[in-house]
Amino acid sequence: LEPLFPDMRGADWVAPDLYQPAPDAKRFETWEFFWGLVRATGVAAKYATDLGLDAIRERSWGLADQLRGMFGEMDGVHCLDRGPRLCAIVTASVKGWHPQDLVRELRARGINTTGQVGTDAVIDYEQKGVDGSLRVSPHYFNTEQELATLVAALEELLP
After folding, report:
1. C-alpha–C-alpha distance, residues 53 and 45, integer Å
2. Per-residue pLDDT tens for 62-73?
3. For 135-154, what is each residue's pLDDT tens digit?
4. In Å, what is the CA distance from 116 to each residue of 38, 77, 79, 99, 143?
5. For residue range 21-52, what is the model confidence (pLDDT) as tens digits?
């Protein structure tokens, strides 16, 4: 595998027209190396393992299941998730809203979500008959009140 941008960290310049990539994963590194991020990643990993990965998963999945149930009770919000085992990402179409416009409106209200357009998942969205989706990913640190705040905002925004 060749690095996209070989530099002084990921490759040695061995001749005027030849470089030799590092023999290991360092070949994909660039000159700048952010030690603060490395340290922060270690702290985050320790925090997660101290909490317990199973507990984090169960909490996140539980919040996502609650949100799917809340969406299911709303006229104009259609949950798009399907499958035998659902994760902690909830996707929905919202009547009268383009996903990116809805994301902006929710962000203005202090609610962080993401959106996808049809070209992000052509086959899936075509099968579901939608042109995109609102994506909500509850994390273990979110609260049930935050889910209720999202639902209340959507109820205000529905046509």
Report:
1. 10
2. 999 999 999 999
3. 999 999 999 999 999 999 99
4. 30, 15, 14, 6, 24
5. 999 998 888 877 789 999 999 999 999 999 99
Residue holding tokens 């009770």? 73
| Burial profile 15-54: b = 16 or more Cβ within 10 angstroms, e = fewer | eeeeeeeeeeeebbeeeeeeeeeeeeeeeeeeeeeeeeee
AA identity, residue 35: W
For CATH 3.90.1150.10, the residue range(s) in the chain are 53-157
Q: Alpha carbon of 93 to those of 45, 97, 132, 155: distances in Å?
A: 34, 8, 7, 13
pTM of the model as a whole? 0.80
Instruction: Answer whether residue 102 shows pLDDT above 80.
Output: yes
| Encoded tokens for 18 | 């030849």
CATH class of 53-157: alpha beta
